[in-house]
Specification:
mainly beta; 56% strand; single chain; globular
Length: 194
């Protein structure tokens, strides 16, 4: 079932955004980011996140469209418990290319990138959380969903999930989010990529 973007609650509301039931368009503010300590030594909690409450188990997915061109330009889905426990996953521009990226944070951040497909100006991301585990999948077409990451994530009674976008090195990235849904956990096997 589709989720109405007007029902979310902002963490770090961007200066420029517009939502209707079926879509959200935002433009990032300057030097926004989510990160905790690892490698860089700093903690940032200034990225844009439109939060929707969930239960202890769910599957959420979203379509992301944008032109990612500057180092660390990023957009996708965030799952958040608090400022020390969260995941952001989607596209991130690094080393001259767009990659599918996941940052799993439980006290400190852990970053991984992959390129199961290279067309990353229009893609979908899906997150399933249940029983202390998070399954992250990405899709170019909404039909084929290769696995991006399977990670432990703390089991709690309620999470927040929703679109996120950051530009640590600049401002002015415009991202369009659509086809956002939150529902029961998928019953599909881990290796079922549909």
């Amino acid at each position: 079932m589709s989720t109405n973007f007007n029902d979310g609650k902002w963490l770090n509301e961007p200066a420029i955004w517009h939502a209707e039931a079926a879509g959200l368009t935002l433009t990032t503010d300057e030097k926004t980011d989510f990160w905790r300590e690892t490698h860089y030594g700093f903690t940032r909690d200034s990225g844009h996140f439109l939060a929707f409450p969930t239960t202890d188990a769910f599957t959420a997915q979203i379509r992301v469209q944008g032109e990612f061109r500057t180092l660390y330009d990023q957009a996708g889905l965030m799952v958040r418990i608090d400022e020390e426990r969260w995941v952001k996953t989607g596209v991130e521009f690094t080393d001259g290319e767009a990659f599918l990226s996941t940052v799993v944070t439980d006290g400190k951040s852990d970053w991984s990138v992959a390129q199961p497909f290279r067309e990353l100006e229009d893609f979908r991301i899906r997150v399933t959380v249940a029983n202390g585990a998070m399954r992250i999948q990405a899709s170019r077409d909404g039909s084929f969903w290769p696995l991006l990451r399977l990670a432990p994530f703390p089991a709690v009674a309620q999470y927040e999930v929703g679109p996120t976008a950051c530009t640590p090195e600049r401002s002015g990235l415009t991202v369009r989010f659509s086809e956002f849904s939150i529902g029961p956990t998928t019953a599909k096997d881990l290796h079922d990529l549909s």
